[in-house]
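Batch 3, record 17
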Amino acid sequence: MTGQRLFDKVWDRHVVASPEGEPVLLYIDLHLVHEVTSPQAFEGLDLARREVRRPDLTLATMDHDVPTIGIDKPIEDPMAAEQIARLRDNCAKHNITLHALGSVEQGIVHVIGPQLGLTQPGMTVVCGDSHTSTHGAFGALAFGIGTSEVEHVLATQTLRQAKPAAMAVNVTGELPSGCTAKDLALGIIRTLGTGGGVGSVIEYRGPAIRALSMEGRMTVCNMSIEGGARAGMISPDDTTFAFLEGRKYSPTGADWEGALDLWRSLATDPDAKFDHEITVDAAALRPAVTWGTNPAQSVSIDDVVPDPAGFATPALQQLAERALTYMDLKPGIAIRDIAVDTVFIGSCTNGRLEDLRQAADVVRGRKVHPRVRALVVPGSGRVKEAAEAEGLDKHFIDAGFEWRSAGCSMCLGMNGDILAPGERSASTSNRNFEGRQGPGGRTHLVSPAVAAATAVAGHFSAPGDL
Amino acid sequence: MAGVQQISGRAVALNRRDVDTDQIIPAAWLKLVGRTGFADGLFSAWRSDPSFVLNQPGANQAKILVSGANFGCGSSREHAVWALQDYGFRAVVAPSFADIFRNNCVNSGVVPARVSEEASGRLFATLAADPQAETVVDVAARTVAIPSAGLSELFELDGFAQWQLLEGLDDIALSLRHGTSIEEYEADRPNWLPKVKTL
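Prediction for the assembled complex:
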């Protein structure tokens, strides 16, 4: 028998039942809930007169459409207010812990789970949000689900799942200085393509992955879905354990030792085989900037906007042409010559303390370009608090950034933090789809360091350019 | 949820790949708290272009959407399926689907019919020649056909999803049949696994 992969080990530990001819029933260790994808699930539950099976394994917060300014005032948008009120009512009714707006524990669902120590190796974690893949950084099997599945988990604490394929993304070499986990994530997706991971769970492997902090690993796993993958995972190691030790929900004492034994046993066996495998050379990467309307359409900051004719298939050529029309770009323009109107630093991809430190390092003692609107939205109340304790907020505010409260904000523009039609942003978020940050808005995905340098220069720049 | 055996009607051909859920239903529409009222939001940005396929005569009568690979990529929003459904679509035919979107379709009673790239090409060519052609998606036979052109293509759909769609099954009731297994599993879970609260 060949060895098992991390993914198999976690999967097998969670199979509740495998009825003949049906997908298996998989137990869910942690269910994260937010205001946007849950109201219809709770309504379905109530209509069928069903209860939440495990309120103790369910945690709710509000992040998608919460305001990031004036959070002590009533929410102006009546629809957002209604949705948030629904979440409060549903959590109260079903005895679910809610980290509500105004609480220091509130924040983006994928930032607060790990920060509380709720996300642990070997667990299954789901949420009605595609970026749930973030939690795979801990060696958890974590994936996004739809609202019907949210209802299913609330009622049964299980999900019906056909087992996905296992893909290895081997990252060789060392990331050059100036390159971050975000540049690596964009580089991987460029290699994989937007649909390359469909039907698969990715395991990120290799020395460049081992060298990443937990924050960096979360950034990489977060964007697995942008390559189409069901989930992304990284074997837990001492970096993982050091991050978890002493957190609110981490095991303690003898339990901690027992947990460590289990967690150490989860790594993929040396003789295990993967269904698919790709290799990315980290040493060849440079800071990345997307030029198109999907996250696979990126180049190095040193490069130019590509010519659609250079793409391999007619479908990809057509896609590139459409993207350039939407983005109002011409082939051959140097990326550094593209000016931006807005810079957004935040999101579940890059809204953690390490990201804010990287950006603050660049803006310290400098000024945001007069034409640019720049905002920093910490990923959680705790991230905001920690950043303020280090004085990062001062650097941002002195430079001319807006310093906001936690939420998804301009990543998806549900809360009123949006681009105007035709505006162009440098954004540390995860999706550059048409209209993602506001109807008609044009999004370029970058790392926090490039976003910060771009805010200062007014056009795409790396910190070394300043 | 009602079962779905066969869908016949007009098809709309949206010949592009990587159609993402932000296009299918923009985020501004996700503030609705019900499962209906999404029809006007369906592809709302693209519908401002008069040449867009949904602006062609008869498109509002269509029941089948034919599109390119990796349809429904991006966010997990089931609102994308509800928007398609609200507009009148009962099936989407494409060479591949994003995983979450595909599950959402099955759970909401919309047929995600996965055809080969070659079959997809033949369907687009046939619909380009005759946009009004009646198209038939048969869930039991797993075929998508355009009878007037003598075209019939097989599609892939796993047996469980097919059963769920044909019978309109309550997935939760099916899982609750395994209540004893769930209880046994829970009894064996390590005590140190995190609990958000003590009940």
